[in-house]
Amino acid sequence: MNTSKSAGEIRLIRLDRIEVLNPRERGSRVFEEIVRNIKTIGLKKPISVTPRIDASGAEKYLLICGEGRLKAYQALGEEEIPALVVDVPDEDAFIMSLAENIARRQHHPLELLSGIRQLLDRGYTIRSIAEKTGLNHCYVQQICNLLRMGEERLLIAVESGGIPINVAVTIAGAGDDDKAVQAALQEAYESGALRGRQLTLARRVIDKRQRLGRAAGRTSTTKHSHISTTTVIRTYQDEVKRQTALVRKAEFSQQKLLLVVGALRQLLCDENFVNLLRAEALTTMPKYLAERVWPNGSHA
């Protein structure tokens, strides 16, 4: 079989011959939209692949770009898909696939971090990563610094738009010193870098960082296992405090309601007050309140 393909040649490729280089997760809603669009108007842009020969001598292809479209074709029961065939080395194919994932308008935060980390592990410089991904050089440098420090929680907050990158760098620079971290947070607030929802989110991230470690999710460090018991106790205590506060709030609201009901009963016994209400056409009240003022259903 002839495997010599000219760059940019579009061919129909069997789906079972395509191997995904950098598989990634995609929300079900987004995927359903891709499938619906392809079913309605067809494939607007072919996927990109590069040809290879497997151990048995058969031709296969490495997917560079278009995993969503490929899976959509599989979901629709298709056997072949239009593909732009480019002849590039393994390293270039890997980088092109990573860059495509990172440069997407709506990538997942963890995908960006994973992509940059893989490029770092392969020996790429910050400048070359910025050039290949189209990201700002300073931004990539700060991301790489946080990656080297293992600050995954801060990084996810940055990529989600929760807190600015410079604030994350300042917090990371404070290390595990709680006073220094709080001072960094206060400085960010006073400078206007953190406001409103961002400040609230930053406090939550810092709290999780202190309790669960810098790594996020299942990648948490050993520190997580060392403090798991303490974490459970603290979580329980926090929940008890929250429930106690809710009970107090409910009791206070009930006292105010009883006061209002008592006052209304006294006023409604005053004929002059009742006549005034009638003159102003205020002869009804909310059912919830009326049932408490007149528990037997009778009223003046």
Account of the protein in words:
With 300 residues, the protein is α/β, with parallel strands linked by helices. The protein folds into three domains: 87 residues, Conserved hypothetical protein from pyrococcus furiosus pfu- 392566-001, ParB domain (Alpha-Beta Complex); 119 residues, no CATH class; 45 residues, no CATH class. The chain is built from 14 helices and five strands. Strand 3 and strand 4 form a beta hairpin. Pfam families: ParB_N (PF02195), RepB (PF07506). InterPro entries: Chromosome_partition/occlusion (IPR050336), ParB/RepB/Spo0J (IPR004437), ParB/Sulfiredoxin_sf (IPR036086), ParB_N (IPR003115), Plasmid_RepB (IPR011111). One of its GO terms (biological process) is chromosome segregation.
Q: How much strand content do the residues show?
A: 5-15%
Oligomer: single chain
How many structural domains can be distinguished in the coordinates?
Answer: 3
What is the helix tally?
14
Largest sheet: 5 strands, mixed
- Number of extended strands: 5
Strand order, biggest sheet? 1-5-3-4-2
Q: Topology as H/E string? A: EEHEEHEHHHHHHHHHHHH
Rg on CA atoms, Å: 31 Å
**Average pLDDT rating:** 78
List unreliable stretches of 5+ residues.
1-6, 218-229
The helical percent reads 55-70%
Global structural class: alpha/beta
> What is the global morphology?
elongated
Layout of helices and strands:
Layout: E1 9-14, E2 18-20, H1 28-41, E3 47-53, E4 59-65, H2 67-75, E5 80-85, H3 90-103, H4 109-121, H5 126-133, H6 137-148, H7 152-159, H8 165-173, H9 178-191, H10 197-212, H11 222-226, H12 228-268, H13 271-279, H14 287-293
Parallel strand pairs: 2-4, 3-5
Antiparallel strand pairs: 1-5, 3-4
